[in-house]
Amino acid sequence: MLRTVGDEYLQMNRANWDSRVPVHAAAYDLDAYRRDPAHISSVIRFDLPRLGSVSEMDVVHLQCHIGTDTLSLARLGARMTGLDFSTPALDVAKSLADDTGADIRYVEAEVYRAPDVLGEGHFDMVFTGIGALCWLPSVGRWADVVSALLKPGGRLFIREGHPMLWSLADPRDDGIIAVGFPYFETAGTRFVERKTYVGHEDDLASPETVQFNHGIGEILTAVTNAGLTLSSFEEHTSVPWNPLGPSMERVGLGEWQLHDRPERLAASYTLQAVKDQV
Fold it and tell me: For position 183, what pLDDT does the model report?
């Protein structure tokens, strides 16, 4: 365990994500977005039935990384702002937007500072993509940020890895998958992961991270305490990367699930909530 004193966790995680950028820029097939003006990411495509229309909505994508989901939402008609703490990631995101003619505003800031740099009450929707909350030490602070950014009646939309999944250790040699990490929010767990979630040969230059799990009850409580009313919560057996090696199989739309009795694992969830009217 690592006590998250000051911004030690933040510095470590930023260095890690900076080192991921060239790997992800090569692996995400950015040319598909340049070739086809209708191309959208598999993450957004998975949730199209739940998103509804975002046309003419002011949407902020928190922890936007290199901007593929941000661009995808812009292509669905949203007026997009992307926020991330990684300068190299935003450089790639801005370049992709420029290459595709997308009018997207990108802002560099740590997520807890979003209301300071973007202002309060300006957005119809806050979007958070998969693999975001695990980098934040307090889900309560995150929910307060979401509430501050939204207009009254505005909507939170998040698809995220399930805390049940984040608590699992790598499969053992005998194929058994066991709980190895905290399910509930703690001071953080230090990892050394020399590879990222896409295939690549060279090790990451900055492999150390601090990650944080948040139980479903903690997440729902944080959202409601921040003045949002839950409107939809759906758990899924799949997730858009392979987190458990040979225990998983591809199932379409870029998703992976357990090949044996996938109903055993809640791998991800989609949550929607609406900010209460003043």
Answer: 98
